[in-house]
Fold:
Amino acid sequence: MNHWYALGRASAGEPERPSDPEVLERLRMLRRDGRVVVPLSAIHYSELRENPRDRFTAEAGAVMEELSDFWTLAPMSTVFAEEFDAQLKARFGRPAVVRTSPKIGRGVGFAHGMPSSFGLDASPAAAEALRRRLGEDGIRQLEASANKAFEHFALQGGRRVPGFNPYEDRDRAEARLARVLRVVENLRLDPSLYRRLEDVVVAGEFIAEMFEDFRGALVYADSDPYRIATELTDSKEKMTELLLAMPSRRVAVTVRQRYHRDLQHKWTVSDLRDIDALSVAVPYCDVVVTDHAARTAITHAHLDRRFSTIVTSRRQELLQSLPPGAHTSKPSGS
Structure:
């Protein structure tokens, strides 16, 4: 989010860095020309809602709305379903149909794996009366206007709703962080466990991070999911190979393992959220701007080369990374 806040400050005429206004204008130009897509993730919605600094939130939200045009990344669970189905299909011939989905779509609903668009829903008589009054084009304009207003509200207005808890996602993230901190403590206390760090991270991915998604995918794939699960998990080598064969999980495991390797790393909720977002962005986008620690983890493992993705922690590098004609999103399924 820090990069979005910086672009918001640049838009308000108070840039953090001299290059920020030029970066912002380049992105605006490319977006207007239809040459880039700058998608948001579900994480952006959560973090913007949680920020109590209304001024900075409004500035960042306005730039996010302008540059993204409400294009969003698919949630981790949706991407996982496709990747895991593909691995099961290759190994066991099941499921019969691999669930596929675009990696970039429209709106907050897409980012959270659910529909959220408005359409005309009225009785036949009322719908016909509206069509006579507005025409088909008028109906479409009305629906488009309603959807745009909803998307704006979902991004920037949610925290002001009476009775709405803008920190609900934060509460769940804090629970995840507590689990990670227990792992860190165990690694500090048990050197033999630290020497098997990859095993620890892989096991955590199966048991703590993606357990429900694994279970759901196994049930979808086979009438006897226990049979497949037993074969997949009968050795740590199989479990590791399976995870690393899935692009999103390879990114998540790699970054998580890099952070755990430094026992003095100060884990935060932002670390966990960054890993979630990067697990989709790095394999499926062309350019990713993140923080220094995440960039180091990704580039040291050569994941940027593996996925042909430019990964940077410096906004000004976008001026070189986005030449005319470049696109920030890869075609669906690549």
Remarks:
- Confidence is low (pLDDT under 50) at residues 325-334.
- Strands lie at 71-73, 104-106, 287-289, 310-312.
